[in-house]
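Sample entry (387 residues):
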Amino acid sequence: MKVLCLGGAGKICREAAHDLVEFSDFKTITIGDLNEKAGREVMEWLNDARVDFKKVDVNDKKETVKLMQEYEIVMDGTTISLNDQTTACIGEAGCHGINLNGFGEEYKYDRLFKDHGKTHVPGFGMTPGTTDMMVKYAADQMETVEIVRVSHGAFRPIAFSASITETTTYEYAPNLPGRVVYEDGKFIQVPPFARPREIELPAPYGTHPQYIIPHAETKTAAQYLANKGVRLIEVRGTWPPKNMQLIKALYDWGFMRNEKVKLGSSETGILDAIGAYLMQAPEGQTTDLYGYALHVEVIGARDGKKVQHILTHTHPASDGSVKGWEKLRAYTRCVGIPMAIGTQILASGRVEAKGVIIPELAFDPSEVFKELKRRKICIHEKIHPVS
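Predicted structure, serialized as tokens:
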């Protein structure tokens, strides 16, 4: 079986490809990317006879579809802005697919995947993805669910890659329609920095204020829990404190509107200029603490009693004490590994549903958690009675 790792030269997707080399039985693992130099460097880094490289320009739909038809599954690590067209290509090629972001454009291709008898799972990294599994795991133990709060801390530099810079600016766009909470049967749009809540993350990350962010879990959890009476779903997130200080200042001063400004004889979006600066500046490429931390709270009724189920996750330290988890890799591996696990489960034929489906309907949390543990990523749970 063959897998195409689309965007495989990126810092996150290369970690997913690394996981496929370590744990999968794919006969061919292709790094597909527009950046040939970086792609071939990844191929050499992986150092496995099954790995090759193919140059892919997803803007050339005909050639991209033709290439994808050589593969059974596409593991899509491209950016949010490309996921519409990459999903269209995967569907037309008749492949299974999975990606990291899951921001919603993928679902309009549901019929295309069903017509080919294939499955596409949008949004399966750390969050969304692993968080969906944590919500499902807790909710499946309850007769009814009242509240779901998904929170995470992504401790990484603000601009270590173009896709991460794009994610940052997307999530805090002032009038983004997708920044919603689910409350009493309705999706309610909220502004940036809405509904602050102090969230205690596992050590060494500590307690931080977190704010509502536009993540897929809000809508996928609402769909999955539609018959359990859920009243409130909120998804929050944070980055390192310095990152948050910068984003808040940019928001307060109107930079997040990305209005055009003249620079000499040229014109550019002011936020685009800041993003370009951060991509080149040391302040945009480093941070004090690296890694990922999840915190999921589900409140509902279990055996007739109201309970609070809290799940968190931990991974090896980023201080160099565990090989392969040094600094930024403690973050990128956390995001890339779940996508690789999902890719392997999809390729095995164990997902029966066809079309574009939410992670909660695709995967079994216990299986995902077991595979994560094999990679030293551990899920922890506590259950408390609620008076």
